[in-house]
Design brief:
Elements (H helix, E strand, L loop, with lengths): L1 H20 L10 H10 L14 H7 L12 H13 L3 H21 L18 H12 L16
Length: 157
């Protein structure tokens, strides 16, 4: 088990370095959000930050709310990572999650939804479409009852 943990830590360090190389990408699928959430959920994964580099929570907190609300490439995937970090006691993530959640709701009112599909065509998909947007909004409203689909969570975790 210790060997597997060491391998997992090494892979996460490499993924965090890769996410740091693309500072503008905070998405779940290709950017910092998915890596940061996975690292936070790994037991004893308190990986030391690179000297001078902002913590993942700080970078995610600074991410703008994008019109694409999808889980995989859009704002709701970034908010999922903030929710994971906030759930572990990160005050920066908790404050940003609260602020960004309000901005997402205002965006939904203003534009309805916007999928991560070409021309933002409505799609039923989980990572790029309406089902993921709906699920992400439910999770924002009731995180204690709606598990993380992106981390394959279940109620109570």
């Amino acid at each position: 088990a210790a060997r597997h943990t060491g391998v997992a830590h090494a892979l996460l360090r490499a993924a965090l370095r890769g996410a740091g190389a693309a500072p503008a990408d905070t998405s779940w699928a290709d950017g910092l959000a998915g890596v940061a959430a996975a690292a936070a959920r790994l037991p004893a994964a308190h990986l030391p930050p690179r000297p001078g580099a902002p913590r993942p929570a700080e970078r995610l907190a600074d991410a703008e709310v994008r019109p694409d609300l999808s889980l995989g490439q859009g704002t709701l995937g970034t908010l999922e990572a903030l929710a994971v970090l906030a759930g572990q006691g990160d005050a920066t993530a908790a404050e940003a999650l609260n602020r960004r959640s309000g901005q997402v709701l205002a965006l939904v009112e203003a534009q309805s939804h916007r999928c991560a599909t070409p021309d933002h065509v409505p799609s039923p998909g989980l990572l790029t479409g309406l089902s993921g947007i709906g699920y992400g909004l439910l999770r924002l409203a009731r995180p204690e009852h709606v598990p993380s689909v992106l981390l394959l969570g279940h109620p109570g975790h």
